[in-house]
Write a structure and sequence with these properties.
The structure holds two protein chains of two kinds.
Chain A (H helix, E strand, L loop, with lengths): L11 E10 L2 E11 L4 E5 L6 H8 L7 E6 L2 E2 L5 H6 L2 E3 L11 H8 L8 H5 L3 H20 L15 H13 L5 E5 L7 H18 L2 E5 L3 H7 L2 E6 L2 E6 L1 H5 L2 H8 L4 H5 L1
Parallel strand pairs in A: 3-8, 3-9, 6-7, 7-8
Antiparallel strand pairs in A: 1-2, 1-4, 4-5, 9-10
Chain B lengths: L11 H13 L1 H4 L2 H26 L7 H16 L8 H18 L1 H4 L4 H21 L1 H4 L5 E2 L4 E2 L2 E2 L8 E2 L2 E2 L2 H25 L1 H11 L1 H6 L4 H27 L1 E2 L6 H14 L4 H20 L19 H19 L3 H16 L27
Antiparallel strand pairs in B: 1-6, 2-3, 4-5
Helix pairs in contact in B: 3-9, 3-12, 3-13, 3-14, 4-5, 4-7, 4-12, 5-12, 9-10, 9-12, 10-12, 13-14, 13-16, 14-15, 14-16
Classes of the chains: A alpha/beta, B mainly alpha.
């Protein structure tokens, strides 16, 4: 089941993306490029448009202007399942798992990778049975990789919060993604769980060479893991650079800590 | 969905074999009345499994199930009969099922887009439309009086009272006995295929759609395609049930395929437990057999009038409806996951009690919703 592509993943390029909800401009001409194999962090205060940006990237939200391209493919007009089939996987800020066991959830992640249709599954054709068995084995591998091995057959509803977060991560990995979008992967976790998840993310990069886009509020984690950081505030890019550059950017400090100017109050 | 894939397989063949043998016995011991109850239950179970796939697994409500049952039943009666093309009955039966699927497919622009309860309202139109067509298209449907259904024939063997005469182990095999085995075969086919669907890739996609459309789409599930497909598959099971019903009734009439029938099927899957094949079957047997049994034993039941009498008491069919109405209320209150969930909890409860001696073996807490942890006695 080793269908991972050995070549470097394509770059994810976001150009001038604008999203408006009625009167509110959630994203205003946002641009950034996640270089192949890099970890690109997207940070900003609450309501800055990070999750909207993820929704655009995964096809859940159509931008009013701008484009998203993965290598040579434009993602902007594609339906979510087509984007997933291109190898873009994501996790959600608030856990979105389905009922059933960890195995069921991970096998959902294998959906785009498998072919068995209604007729083949209904008649339990050997091809469908074989395919299912192979994908189950790969799902188990991924569960081991993310530290869920011993929970593989447990109902998701019985797992701890941290473990459920990890189920989402594992499910996204089951897509064998080339680009992984992580929406606050450690939010609500305790220190030990955070460290563990950070390790998993680091291992993933090292082993699979994924391009990762990370939205996270835990600055320590961002600064340790990220190669590049884009800072959003009220839907606009206010800074861009390496973690160290961003950390000293006056605009960023203002957005995070506030300076008490009228502009701030007006907003 | 939560069934383990391999593990349980070791003991299962033995249990399935035992069940199959037990199900083959009734024609040798029971009279036609009981066989007919069984036959109707099997047909209903096939239809209920189809609806369970749509409503329980994919989370789509359908009030149009009666329409697809009618397409199957009338499709067979027309294709195999006179007036009509007079096709060989087996081919007519297969075509009738495909016809039901095609009818579901025609509805897929709606079924693929409309969600949950809104689809229920949309499919409501189908029932009234279908009923109207059945009443007015006389040349095909026979109008108000319906039309008779030609018996199924398979390589010179007719599923009818004679032709050829058949005596097995001293029991004369009439139409009911023969149809019993046909029904059993179709029912087994339904279990086999529905199980494969539920545990396979399509079933997981549909369950994901039900639990979170967003997560499903992001994981690569084509939402509209799978919604339509679930509707088509459910229609085909309804068509198959319709064919078997037609064969069992030997005559199809429009009034049978009314909205009440659609509601009956919903009652079956709610009582049985949404999304489970075994639950749908149990619900189907309950809802189908109850009115027939009450009609038969009306004279011995309190508060129930014999059929045909105008004593002012409740007729057996209405009484049965009251009873399963009550059953639905009880199920919703005390066992929201239906008879299937109830059976599972009782099983777990027993399993937890038994291994008290091996103290070293800690029993893992069984997965059960906290609100419905205590097992309940069976619903009436």
């Amino acid at each position: 089941m080793n269908d991972r592509t050995p070549v470097a993943p394509p770059a994810l390029d976001v150009r001038d993306v604008t999203v408006r909800f009625a009167g509110l401009t959630a994203l205003d001409g946002v641009s950034f490029t996640a270089a192949p194999g890099s970890l690109h962090a997207l940070i900003g205060p609450n309501g800055a448009g990070k999750s909207t940006c993820f929704n655009v990237l995964s096809g859940l939200c159509r931008p009013d202007a701008g484009t998203v391209t993965l290598g040579d493919t434009e993602l902007t007009r594609l339906a979510p399942h087509r984007i997933a089939a291109l190898g873009v996987a994501r996790t959600f800020q608030n856990i979105v798992t389905t009922q059933g066991t960890v195995a069921d959830n991970l096998m959902l992640g294998r959906h785009a990778k498998s072919r068995a249709g209604y007729a083949a599954s209904a008649l339990r054709l050997p091809s469908a049975v074989r395919e299912q068995r192979a994908h189950l084995a790969r799902a188990r591998e991924i569960a081991e990789l993310t530290g869920l091995g011993h929970h593989f057959d447990s109902p998701v509803g019985l797992l701890s919060y941290g473990d459920r977060k990890r189920v989402e991560l594992a499910r996204a990995l089951c897509l064998e993604p080339r680009v992984l979008l992580l929406d606050e992967p450690v939010a609500g976790m305790n220190a030990a769980e955070r460290a563990r998840t950070a390790d998993v993310v680091r291992e993933l990069r090292a082993e699979l060479g994924l391009t990762i886009v990370l939205v996270e509020h835990d600055m320590g984690l961002v600064m340790r893991l990220a190669d590049d950081v884009t800072v959003l505030d009220f839907g606009r890019t206010i800074a861009h650079g390496t973690p160290d550059e961003v950390r000293q950017d006056p605009e960023v400090l203002r957005a995070y800590l506030g300076t008490g100017t009228q502009e701030e109050e007006a907003a | 969905m939560s069934d383990r894939l391999p593990g349980a397989l070791t003991r299962r063949p033995a249990r399935i074999l035992l069940l199959a043998v037990a199900l083959c016995l009734p024609p040798f011991y029971l009279d036609a009345f009981w066989l007919r109850i069984g036959l109707f239950s099997m047909a209903a179970a096939i239809g209920a499994v189809g609806l369970s796939l749509l409503s329980g697994t994919a989370g789509q409500l359908s009030l149009g199930h009666a329409f697809f049952l009618a397409v199957g039943a009338y499709g067979y009666a027309y294709l195999a009969g006179e007036p009509g093309p007079g096709l060989p009955p087996v081919i007519a039966a297969v075509l009738a099922v495909l016809l039901a699927g095609a009818a579901g497919g025609l509805f897929s622009p709606v079924a693929g887009r409309v969600k949950g309860i809104y689809l229920g309202i949309a499919t409501l139109a189908l029932v009234f439309l279908g009923h109207h067509v059945l009443l007015t298209a006389d040349s095909v449907t026979g109008g108000f009086n319906g039309r008779s259904v030609p018996p199924l024939e398979l390589g010179g063997f007719a599923f009818a009272a004679s032709d050829p005469e058949l005596v097995v182990l001293g029991v004369p095999f009439g139409a009911e006995e023969r149809l019993w085995f046909l029904g059993l075969a179709l029912f087994a086919f339904t279990w086999f295929t529905a199980g494969g669907l539920l545990r396979g890739r399509p079933g997981r996609a549909l369950a994901a759609l039900r639990d979170s459309e967003t997560a499903a789409a992001v994981m690569g599930v084509d939402v509209a395609r799978h919604r339509s497909a679930a509707f088509v598959v459910s229609s085909m099971y309804a068509g198959l049930a319709g064919v078997l019903l037609a064969l069992a009734f030997r005559r199809v009439v429009p009034d049978y395929f009314s909205l009440a029938l659609s509601i009956d099927y919903l009652a079956m899957i709610v009582i049985g437990g949404l999304g489970s094949v075994a639950g749908a079957t149990a619900g189907a047997v309950f809802v189908t057999a109850l009115p027939l049994l009450m009609t038969r034993y009306a004279d011995q039941l309190p508060l129930v009038a014999a059929p045909g009498s105008t004593e002012g008491a409740v007729g057996p069919t209405e009484a049965a409806r009251y009873l399963y109405g009550a059953a639905i209320v009880l199920v919703l209150l005390y066992a929201p996951d239906g008879l299937h969930g109830l059976a599972r909890r009782v099983r777990e409860h027993l399993r937890r009690r038994r291994p008290r001696t091996p103290a070293t073996d800690p029993v893992p807490p069984p997965p059960q919703p906290a609100a419905a942890a205590r097992p309940k006695e069976h619903t009436p």
